Amino acid sequence: MSTEIHPFRIDIPQAELDALRARLAATRWPEPLPGAEWSRGVPVDHLRGLAEYWADGFDWRLAERRLNAFPQFITEIDGQPIHFAHVRSPEPDALPLIMTHSWPNSIAEFLEVIGPLTDPRAHGGEPSRAFHVVAPSLPGFGFSRFPQPPDPAPWTAARVARTWAQLMARLGYRRYGAHGNDAGAVISPELAVADGDHLVGVHITGGVGIPTGDPAELAGLTGEEREQVQGLVDMLAGAGGSGYAPYLAARPLTLGYGFLDSPVAQLAYLVERFTEFDGWPQDGTAPAEPIGRDALLTNASLYWFTGTGASSSWTYYDGAAGMPIDQDKVPTGVSHGGSDAIRRIAERRNDIAHWSNRSSGSHMVAMAAPEGLVEDIREFFGALAARA
C-alpha cells in the first residue's frame, strides 16, 4: 500500500463550468403547489432565483482561489483516496488539530476558521493558542471520491476515525486534538477509542448527552428539566418533518440519480437540509437563513463537480449518522451543548472539561458564527494545556 502524500490543487476545467450553466439553463421547473410558501418544500421562485445566481452571478473561480489558498493534498489509506487541507501554523509550538466537517457539507465549511486558528497573531489572538489544522474530506465527499468499484465494507464512524488516526501519524503528529460538527461530531469521539494514546482532547459542537430512551438517563432531573430534555429529543426526532434520514438509511442511491444528473435537484436538496437543520418554518413563511448564498453555492459546486451527492449519503446508510458516543478516555469540550440538564447527563459517561451553550443561528456553526467557534476551540484546548 502506498503511503505517499501528493500535493493537490482544485482546478475545475472551464468546460465543466460551461456544462453546469447549460444544465441550469435547461432546467424543467415545476408549477408551484398551493399552500403557504414553504409548507410543501423549497419554493419554486426561491430556488429559481438561487439557480439563476449560480449560473450568472456566483464566481466559482473566486471560491476556487479561496479554497486553494490552503495547501491541499491526497493520500491513500485503506484503499481510499483521502483529500485534505493541511495548514501549518507559523507558531512552532502549535497543537495539531484535525477538523471533520458535517453532512451535507465539505471542507468549505471551515473557510472562515482556518486562518484564525492557524495564525491567531494575524487575527488579534494569542499566539500560544495556535493550531496546525488538518481538514480532510470525508470518504465519498468532495475530492475523497470512492474508488471504482467501491469497497463493499461499510464506512462506519469508527472506520473513519481509524483512518484519521493513520493520517495524523502519516503527517508525523503524535499528539493532537480533534474538532467536529454534525457527522464530524460523531466521528471525533471515535478517535478517542481509535487513538486515545495520542489524542489530547475532543471538541464538538453538540450532541453528547442527548438521551437515548433509557429512563435511567433522566434520573435526578427535575420535572422542568425533564420537559426541556424531552422537547429537545422530540425536536431531533422530528428532524423538521421531511423524513430524509430514514430514506437515506434505506435507499440513498435512488436520490443519487437526480443529484448526479441535475444541479437543481442537488441544490434543492442542500437548501432543504440547511434550512431544515436551522428550523424549517412551520407556518410556511420564508426562513431567515444565516448562511450566505455564496457559501451555500461553494458547497453545492463542490458536490456537483465531484459527483459525490449520492456517495456522501453513506453516513446514513452505514450508520455513521446519529449522536456522538460516550467516552472518557480523553477530555471533551462542547460549544453548543444545550441546557445544564443535558450537561449533567453527558457528565455521567464523559470527561466534560468544557461546556458552553453558544448560539450560532445555524447547525453549520463554522459558516454562521466562525468567531465564536474559534474562541470556543481556543478556550477548550487552552484549558487542557493549563490542566497539564
TrEMBL record:
Gene Ontology biological process terms from the UniProt entry: epoxide metabolic process
A GO MF label: epoxide hydrolase activity
Stored Pfam families: EHN
UniProt keyword annotations, A-Z: Aromatic hydrocarbons catabolism, Hydrolase
Catalytic site: D182 (nucleophile), Y316 (proton donor), H363 (proton acceptor)
Gene3D superfamilies: alpha/beta hydrolase
InterPro entries: AB_hydrolase_fold, Epox_hydrolase-like, Epoxide_hydro_N, Epoxide_hydrolase
Domain Epoxide hydrolase N-terminal: 5-110
Parts of the chain that traverse the membrane: none
Family under the similarity heading: Belongs to the peptidase S33 family.
Protein name (database record): Pimeloyl-ACP methyl ester carboxylesterase
Species in which this protein is naturally found: Allonocardiopsis opalescens
